[in-house]
Every structure is written in C-alpha cells, then in structure tokens.
Write a structure and sequence with these properties.
2 domains, Methylamine Dehydrogenase, Chain H, 36 strands, 4-stranded antiparallel beta sheet, mainly beta, single chain, 1 helix
C-alpha cells in the first residue's frame, strides 16, 4: 500500500515536470494568396508567378481546368471560355497547408504584369491574333515637359498602366504614360525590369534595385561580382538576375541580385560585348558583338551561333524568345529561328531591340524608327518621326495590349 501511495504522489509530479519541459506549439499561420489579374487574355501564355503570389514559403503546386493548359510553369489560354486555376500550398515553417482556386474569364486586352518573364503569347497560328492590329499607327511623344528625367530615353518597361522610363534617371507614370514623376535615381538608366514592387535598373555604376516601387534604391557594383560597374540590359526570372555589359560580359545572380558571378569568353561567350539577354528556364540566350550565345545549363557554359547559322554579321543587339522561336535583332536585319536558335533566316529590318506579342513583332530601329509586323515577322511597316516619334533612333520597344512604347533619343513615343 505504501508503494501505491508513492506512485500516486510521484505520477502527478512527474507529469508536471514533463509538461514544463515541452515547449508550447504555436498555432500555424494561415497562408494568403493575392490574385494579380481579374481576367486573362485569350490565346496567351502567362508565367504562373504573374497570376498569383503568396506569403507562404511552402511548395506551390499549380493545376488548371477549362480553356487553358499548364506546361513548364506557364499557363496558356485558348481562344474563348474560362480557365480555373488552382494553387495548392504545402505546409512549411509557420505556414499551414492550404489550397486556393479562381475562375478567370478569357477577355481581350488584359494587361499582364511581368513576374518571371515579359508577357508572351502562344504562336499557334490557328488561335493567335495580333495584339497590334494591322492599321496605320500614330504616336504621341512624351518628353521632359511630361516629367521625364531627360528627352534621351534608353529603356522602357510597362506593367498595366504603370510606365517606367530610363534616361538620365528613372521616371515613373501611373496613368499610362501621360504624366511622369522623377524618382531619386538620377544615374543613367539603360535597362529596366520590374517584378511586383521590385525595380531593377541597369545603370552607369552597376545595378540599382528598389524594393518599394522605385522610391529608394540600393546599388550593386563590381564589388558584388558584377562584370563591370556599367549595366546595359537586365532580365529577371524568379530569383535569378541577369545583367549584360557591353564591355565585360554577362553577370548572373541566383540570390535576387545580392551577389553575382560573371561569364565571359572563358565560359563560351564569343565576345565580352554583351548587349541583351533572355532566359527561358535553364536556357539562356545572350546577344553579343560576335553572335548569339546559348546556354542550356543556366548560364554556366555557352555555345555560339554566328553568320554561319544565318545571323548575318553576327552583331546581336536584341533577343526575344517564344517557345522554340528565337528573334534576334542584328545590325544587318531581324533574324528569326524556329528551331530554338540552331538556324536563322532574315525577315525584317535591323535594330537595337525586339519585342514579340503573338503574331506582332516590333523592332527598335537604329535611325529607322519602329518596325511593326502583324504577320509574325514576314512583312514590316516602318513608323518614324512623321508618325509621331520624337526621333528615328529607337533603343527599346515594349508592347502591352495594342499599345507600343518606344524609347527614343528624343522622348518616349506611345502609340494612340
């Protein structure tokens, strides 16, 4: 009996000690999702990251149903109907598991906010229609009188009605490009890429990064691994940031732009002069003074296409990729490859940049204005000062819906 009483006394005491040693388990945080679009354009391909984002750090699993398909992280819509998108989040850390779904109507002219890559449409001829209609296009020119930092503009990037323009600094418009507000960034801005509230600007002095929509900036330089302290173009895919330099090669960051590794001729690039870069998954396309260098391992090693592949003099200053179709803007003409960049054919005017939406191809011409094709690059119409451009020297073009933005040496021209 004494033994039993001892057990009765010790058991509660033991339980008290055990419970004191076990830490309290915090309740799991319910994740949330922000749907970035209200509708989807028909016959268009969207990176999943441009459609929704979440505060959860758990693994994301996407699935779709209806008039759409999912492949390689991109959701492609059909010509009509609706698309239901489901995002399942796995539990991780403080976040619980949760699933979200949304039904999107397929309606034309919905701006696509770029998240991992610029807006790209499918190229199936039976379903794709040109975003820029085959008509006479007039432009309105914006200058310092509209709030730009300078009349000389280098780069332009557009997300919905927000227009980012680089010149002797960065100016931002929130009304589609009617008026602009100068930011604190007053270095020469040559290239732009925007992901949500994060603005990447290739500038004289390196790379400027803002995480508050362009209000404040931090700078990355050669001390952070950049090839040189002068960026020319910038491309972003998730946490991977690519910065081209016309003198020192290609710099790649895999941590969102904190540190960089530089690729040069030692890694297969055939020139240190890198003018543009475009990435699709682990395939990286780099326009150089000596041709188009292509990497299939995320930018570790490269092989180069030159004049022997149909690139003319091989000086590639602009690159755009849609599926297996590669568009290369060279000084001797626009070259298009339909086999992933193995062979090219001459199709249009040369230029400093190229942008593609569906069957519409726009080329930024060096002293030749903007070349616009609505048949996939077979024929082009040139638009110059007489059409409203401030200058025939166009450095970059950007297209959203039916609106063409052209960064020229005398302002930003916007099609009416």
């Amino acid at each position: 009996m004494k033994f039993n009483r001892l057990l009765v006394c010790l058991l509660p005491f033991g339980l008290l000690i055990s419970s004191a040693l076990v830490p309290a388990v915090a309740a799991a945080t319910t994740p949330s999702v922000i749907w970035k679009l209200k509708t989807l354009n028909p016959s268009q391909s969207y990176p999943t990251s441009s459609i929704a984002s979440s505060n959860s750090t758990g693994t994301k699993t996407w699935s779709v149903s209806g008039s759409c398909s999912l492949k390689s992280g991109r959701i492609s819509t059909r010509t009509s109907g609706s698309c239901t998108i489901k995002l399942a989040l796995k539990a991780k850390g403080k976040f619980a598991a949760k699933s979200f779904s949304k039904r999107f109507l397929l309606a034309a002219n919905t701006p696509t906010p770029p998240e991992s890559s610029p807006p790209i449409q499918t190229t199936t001829t039976s379903t794709t229609t040109a975003s820029v209609p085959p008509r006479s296009i007039a432009f309105t020119n914006r200058t310092i009188a509209s709030g730009l930092q300078s009349n000389w503009t280098f780069g332009v990037f557009v997300v919905g009605s927000t227009v980012y323009v680089g010149g002797s600094g960065l100016a931002i418009s929130t009304d589609g490009g009617t008026t602009f507000t100068k930011t604190s960034l007053t270095r020469s801005v040559r290239g732009l890429y925007v992901v949500g509230a994060t603005v990447y600007a290739a500038v004289s002095g390196g790379l400027a990064i803002s995480t508050d929509g362009g209000t404040t900036f931090t700078f990355r330089t050669a001390a952070d691994g950049l090839a040189c302290n002068n960026g020319d173009r910038v491309f972003v895919a998730g946490s991977v940031v690519y910065v081209s330099d016309t003198n020192c090669g290609l710099s790649i960051s895999t941590d969102g732009g904190v540190t960089f590794t530089t690729r040069t001729t030692a890694d297969g690039l055939n020139s240190y002069s890198v003018y543009d870069v475009f990435a699709v998954g682990s395939t990286v396309y780099v326009g150089t003074k000596g041709g188009l260098s292509i990497s299939t391992d995320g930018g570790v090693t490269f092989t180069t296409r030159t004049a022997a592949s149909g690139l003319g003099n091989g000086w590639v200053q602009g690159v755009y990729v849609v599926d297996s179709t590669v568009y290369a803007a060279t000084t001797s003409g626009l070259r298009i490859s339909t086999d992933g960049g193995t062979t090219f054919r001459l199709t249009g005017p040369g230029g400093l940049g190229v942008y593609v939406v569906g069957s519409t191809v726009c080329v930024a011409g060096e002293n030749s204005g903007v070349g616009i094709s609505t048949d996939g690059g077979t024929t082009f119409t040139q638009y110059k000062i007489a059409s409203g451009l401030g200058s025939d020297y166009v450095r970059q073009v950007f297209v959203v819906g039916s609106t063409v933005y052209a960064a020229t040496t005398n302002g930003l021209a916007i099609s009416d």
